[in-house]
Amino acid sequence: MKITLTPIGTAKNKEQKHFGGWKDVATDLVIDEKYRDALAGLEDYSHLIVIYWMHDVKTCDIRHVPQGKVGEVPEVGIFACRCPQRPNPIGVSTVEIIGIENAVVRVAGLDVIDNTPILDIKPYTPQYDATTDAKVPDWVNKLDY
């Protein structure tokens, strides 16, 4: 089966390569003009979920040591970590909305480099997106965010 995706916009920031510390990075989601009206009502939310294509990722190993922390965290399967190297380089991040003007949504904390294609955005809704009983392995607390 072949799947074709069409970006709804592009992420614009000054980042080319970056590792950790994304919470203070501001990014403009420049939404294609034909989707401008789809932003109506988004201003009533504080956060959104951004789905994007990690266009700069070139390789994917089935096993990986998260953040290269050999000896600190275990090697795990690619589906047990959040690294960008994926069979399909689709990224998903929850971010804070800083502001919306025309067809540009400014967000904080999006872990993307400049010109990353945006596939979709969805409002963050605690009833759907939050869980109070999530379990994660202890090594996750050793990662940088």
TrEMBL record:
Domain TsaA-like: 5-133
Short name of any one Pfam family annotated for the protein: TrmO_N
Sorted UniProt keywords: S-adenosyl-L-methionine
Record organism: Candidatus Kaiserbacteria bacterium GW2011_GWC2_52_8b
Protein name stated in the entry: TsaA-like domain-containing protein
Family: Belongs to the tRNA methyltransferase O family.
SUPFAM superfamilies linked to this entry: YaeB-like (SSF118196)
Lineage, opening ranks: Bacteria, Candidatus Kaiseribacteriota
NCBIfam families: tRNA_TsaA
